[in-house]
Write a structure and sequence with these properties.
Number of strands: 9
Helix content: 25-40%
Organism: Tricholomella constricta
Radius of gyration: 20 Å
Distance between the termini: 34 Å
Largest sheet: 6 strands, parallel
Pfam families: SIR2 (PF02146)
Order of helices and strands: HEHHHHEHHEEEHEHEHEEH
Low-confidence stretches: 41-45
Family: Belongs to the sirtuin family. Class III subfamily.
InterPro entries: DHS-like_NAD/FAD-binding_dom, NAD-dep_sirtuin_deacylases, Sirtuin, Sirtuin_cat_small_dom_sf, Sirtuin_class_III, Ssirtuin_cat_dom
Structural class: alpha/beta
Mean pLDDT: 88
Shape: elongated
Enzyme class: transferase
């Protein structure tokens, strides 16, 4: 059991200041205040369906119309959302010049399970407000989106495999308005495959470019290296139930590092944390980090 009081803000800030390699593992709770619904929690998404069962290759093969409507709903929701204070706090922590008084000798990388793109938008906006060359040079190391991006569109043809970033709203004409039908609880339309999003290179059926259940997450080699050298891991807005991300914090502790958890409520593994801050992470995280956003 950790010897440091779980809720000791000053002790956490001292650990932050002495750290050399910090990582953050973020989940759906990070974006909750931005209006992004979560798979888990009260109600969840798409009341008529087990949303997690739609996020699989098998579901797409069986019913691409339904799965595309699910992801169209998520795309439209994400396009309307804005990064919140927790996103911006992590973005500021990403900048060497901005964390000089918080963790002056540390590196920092955000490893996110979210696909909504809000962390990338917060980082882009924060970077635009800073001109330090050191911040620009290591930009690529600040954010790893291990479950892909909601606005990536990927060809299903193995001979093509083209992927492109596309924020078009709607992604195709046949999906227009279906998000309202789903929100109202109405029956979803059966859209013909030929009318669903197509690859811009070969015109084959396209799929959302996210990592589904039963697929291998992205950047695993880079993440493994970061986890192995991290001496402080921030767990932000995740229930720590989906692997491999759920195991990263314990690996950091096994290597002698510390873990700080920022969650709305208690979740799996909290009793092993060195620090635990309960409440909306858009409130607890900026306060704990001592950063202005």
């Amino acid at each position: 059991m950790p010897s440091t009081p779980l809720h000791d803000m000053q002790a956490f800030q001292a650990a932050l200041k002495s750290s050399k390699h910090i990582i953050a593992i973020a989940g759906a709770g990070l974006s909750a205040a931005s209006g992004i619904p979560t798979f888990r929690g009260a109600g969840g998404m798409w009341r008529k369906y087990d949303a997690m069962s739609l996020a699989t290759p098998e579901a797409f093969s069986k019913n691409p119309s339904l799965v595309w409507q699910f992801y169209h709903y998520r795309r439209e929701t994400a396009l309307k959302a804005l990064p919140n204070a927790a996103h911006f706090s992590l973005a500021v922590l990403s900048l060497a010049s901005a964390r000089e008084n918080v963790a002056p000798d540390a590196t920092f990388t955000l490893i996110t399970q979210n696909v909504d793109g809000l962390s990338a938008r917060a980082l882009e906006q924060t970077l635009s407000a800073h001109t330090a060359q050191s911040d620009v040079q290591d930009e690529a190391l600040k954010l790893l989106e291990m479950h892909g991006r909601l606005f990536d569109v990927k060809c299903t043809s193995k001979s093509c495999g083209h992927t492109e970033f596309d924020t078009t709203s709607p992604i195709c004409a046949s999906l227009a308005g279906t998000e309202a039908l789903i929100a109202a609880g109405d029956a979803e339309p059966d859209i013909q495959v030929a009318e669903l999003p197509r690859c811009s290179k070969c015109n084959a059926l396209a799929r959302p470019g996210v990592v589904w259940f039963h697929e291998i997450p992205l950047h695993l080699r880079a993440i493994r290296s970061l986890v192995n050298r991290a001496d402080l891991c921030l767990v932000v807005g995740t229930s720590s139930t989906v692997y491999p991300a759920a195991g990263y914090a314990s690996q950091v502790q096994e290597n002698g590092g510390k873990v700080a958890v920022f969650n709305l409520e208690r979740s799996s593994g909290d009793e092993e944390a060195n620090f635990l801050f309960l409440g909306p992470c858009e409130e607890t995280l900026p306060k704990a980090l001592g950063l202005t956003t």
